[in-house]
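> example.struct
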């Protein structure tokens, strides 16, 4: 979850849609992975790019479900914490595949395959192979967009 501070909110009349507020600063305390989705929004023959930040895989699923002819996902990136990527820093990498399932102890596990080929797991016991999971399902798989992704 992201935490906001009202002192950093931005409100410009007519700039945001109903129910929206801009923020100049957000805080994140969780040590779980999170996601950035870049998508192309078609508005007639023109387009704009928007970046959406998802705090968890269930919100990512909601964003991906909105994919259509006017809202096209260009890339999904995963931001992994140090305990997952075995470094001292968070890392943002292009997500190639996101798989979910249950390990031998019945814990829900997410496997994040990134562009470099590395697989990061939310499992505390280090399960990084989908064949070791049950009830496996693919949440996201990168399909490189074709050159025809332009707006019509």
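> example.seq
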């Amino acid at each position: 979850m992201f935490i906001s501070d009202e002192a950093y909110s931005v409100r410009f009349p007519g700039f945001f849609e109903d129910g929206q507020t801009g923020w100049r600063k957000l805080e994140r305390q969780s040590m779980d992975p999170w996601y950035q989705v870049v998508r192309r929004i078609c508005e007639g023959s023109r387009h704009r790019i928007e970046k959406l930040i998802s705090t968890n895989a269930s919100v990512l699923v909601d964003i991906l479900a909105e994919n259509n002819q006017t809202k096209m996902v260009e890339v999904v990136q995963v931001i992994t914490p140090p305990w997952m990527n075995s470094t001292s820093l968070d890392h943002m990498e292009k997500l190639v595949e996101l798989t979910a399932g249950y390990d031998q102890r019945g814990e829900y596990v997410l496997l994040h395959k990134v562009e470099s080929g590395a697989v990061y797991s939310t499992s505390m016991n280090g399960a990084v192979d989908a064949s070791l999971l049950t009830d496996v399902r693919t949440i996201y798989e990168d399909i490189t967009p074709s050159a025809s992704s332009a707006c019509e």
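> remarks
The longest strand covers residues 91-102.
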